[in-house]
Input
Amino acid sequence: MNTSTRTALRLLAAAAVLLTVATGLGPSTATAGPATWVTLGPHPARPGTVRPFVQSFARKPQARPQVPLPKPKKPPELPASIDGCDHGYRMPQQPGLCVPWRFPPGVRARCDWLRGHGYFDPAPDGTAARLLVRGRDRHRLDPDRDGEACEKTERPAR
Output
């Protein structure tokens, strides 16, 4: 008999012992008498109403309800970069893309990084994608200040 067979037989014997003890079908350990057998009968009927159990301390709560805070008069002010986008730039042909508020560490040529990540791929209708500056040019992507960033005729922005 190999090792795996012996292990399987030992597990089967242990399961039989546990089943015998759990169901009470084996010999009683409290007495040295004969084995006690359990006769299973019909399932007892459930009571008609079940009353909930309430802890004694829950009958008299000691805490008072708190006074609600007043409604705010204006919406909360959130920083502009909360979504990770710099909203000073927009792409009319690709509205889902946004210039990141912070470029990854080590990126020096930001326009090249944007090109490499598909920001200037042609739109489905064949038009060239343009990155427009609206507001402040934080990343200095528009050195000639004409309102269009990362133009191919310009030198790469740092």
The chain is about 20% helix and 5% strand. Confidence is low (pLDDT under 50) at residues 154-158. The first helix runs from residue 3 to 23.
